[in-house]
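Q: For a teaching session next week I want to show students how multiple molecules come together into a single three-dimensional assembly. I've collected the sequence lines for a complex. Could you give me the predicted structure tokens for the whole thing so I can convert them for display?
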Amino acid sequence: MEKKLLLGDEAIALGALHAGLSGVYAYPGTPSTEITEFIQGNALAKERGVHSRWSTNEKTAMEAALGMSFMGKRAMVCMKHVGLNVCADPFVNSGMTGVNGGVVVLVADDPSMHSSQDEQDSRFYGKFAMIPTFEPSNQQEAYDMMAQAFDYSEQQKLPVLMRVTTRMAHSRAVVEVKSEAKQENELNYNAIAANWVLLPANARKRNDVVTAQQAQLEQDAAESPYNQYAEGTDKSLGILASGIGYNYTMECFPDGCPYPILKISQYPLPKKLVRRLLSECEQVLIVEEGQPFIEDMVRGVSDSQNIHGKLDGTLPRTGELNPDIVKKALGMETGQCFDPCADVAPRPPALCQGCGHRDVYAALNEVLKEYDNPRVFGDIGCYTLGFLPPFRAIHSCVDMGASITMAKGAADAGQWPAVAIIGDSTFTHSGMTGLLDAINENANITVIISDNLTTGMTGGQDSAGTNKFEAICHGLGLSDEHLKVVVPLPKNMPEITQIIRDEINYKGTSVIIPRRECMQTLQRHLKQKKAQEGKK
Amino acid sequence: MKTDIILCGVGGQGILSIATIIGEAAMNENLYIKQAEVHGMSQRGGDVQSNLRISSEPIASDLIAKGGADVIISMEPMEALRYLPFLKKEGWIITSATPFVNIPNYPDMEVIKGDLQKLPNVISIDIEQMAKDNGVPRSANVILLGAAQKALGIEYTKLEEAIRRVFGRKGEAIVEANIKALALGREAQK
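A: Of course. Below is the structure for the complete assembly, covering every listed component.
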């Protein structure tokens, strides 16, 4: 055993490597990105040749992991919560096929939406897909659980969903880790085709098997070391706390909790343990990070007055938890504190100085002034900040790739100009199929693929389509005449504005690719270059 | 021993390197540590903060409760004030005196100064200037750490050792620049 100071994400990554991982498949997404990055930089992973290259999107990632599992090896898929929507098809069906080598699907939820579009709680997906779900409450547990999750996945022949939230993913703690890693699984041919070919006749059988398996999964959860019922002397209240909700609860009781407390970190929800808490205590408070997933099940249709949590307003219905919120729910006084300082101004994030997206928006705004009611459909990435002053340039941002398809729908409705703006990595993630739709109908839209040669928002990971965008657009059927590449710099403004104007005026689908490296990665590359020259 | 620290500033100012040094020192002392960081969108020039908790006893929450922080270490004066409700009434603010103005409505600096002066325990240092004047232009954040040493409750030599371990890979020149910056901070705080 040795001690390491690790982010929750890093503890997960190391836990997976020590559990004999053969491949991680992921698309970057806050707060999950650091898991894959850790594996990419890990010496053992390099020595073993553990797969860790970024996938084009979460769906390709999930499917590749299933392929690795099919051949008997252990694979992990990592994503942020909305990424699970992108791979919902293979994820849900992986509950039907089951696994051969262990599969852990690691999903990092982002309550309070620090860097996200919604607050969805992935535990619902686990229940929906009938897949066992783990939810660690601290970094040590996150590390320890990985070995258990892979073993359990192979034992039950099902994938395991591991759910963490932002504060778990992005908080460091001292973690005791093993000094040796388990060997990787050998390639094997044990996967049974009848389980993996989801023809209706096969799938019906699998559905019966997996449905029948649920009772066993719940019993395992009731006996799990991660689900614990701690006795208390004062039974006027019982507390059910899951994941990191448990930490905030314990923070309120530095000298020990007087109430019985049921900690939940493995699902399906063990009803037996919950019933015990309900029968022993007069009132029950449910503390969970995310949506009221457990509370809704416990409350059911009874709407009992003795159950408290997010649905009766004891805890806020939205946003992440913190020690103050939980303290208040327990009826405790918050500590003496200063009032907020009224002179502090908000400081929203902004595009970096010198960023190419800035020049793109400056040019676009300049041209669009000439038209009545132009509409610009945005997408997900740094350039979503184009909504804010000084640009106020986009009218929508819904999900990865929606800029192109929404612009097409708007054009179908009769809108002109309809402009889509999408980043390079988002384009390969989910924009290519939409562009094919547009080109096939020669929709009257102008697509700007703002190419900064990286996945910028998440910190500069490789972008799957770098150096291939012209070829991709050609391949999808776009003519050379309406595919333009520019360098977004202030000095090129006259050329860029003229090209945007011409392509808007063209009655059909055109693509403009402004291309210049991200300022963050540029600075990093210059530093690396300098360091290398220093060594020479 | 228990110290709850809020580290804050503007995305890109290097608050996480301060956290790394404190974390390294604390781990070497076998203390418990929890350090919640901010990654992602807000790093793009927005306000950023990190909750760092060190203790000789196990720590439950990754986040600090209101009125719970012993010290706020801030790379920017207005950002120090943003987290005021989290500071203990008798807690310390150790802040850079240099404003980072990347918003059109940044308040008058005299107002910010006045707000800081109203508080009982504030150390405000022009770390950027001090770093330049002393030939350690890239170690302004470590000057701030030196000034915060007493409030942190970590021995000075332990922070020095941590700097040697954290920056060791980057060569002796960088180690020495940071050791010097730490000493400058200690002097400035006196």
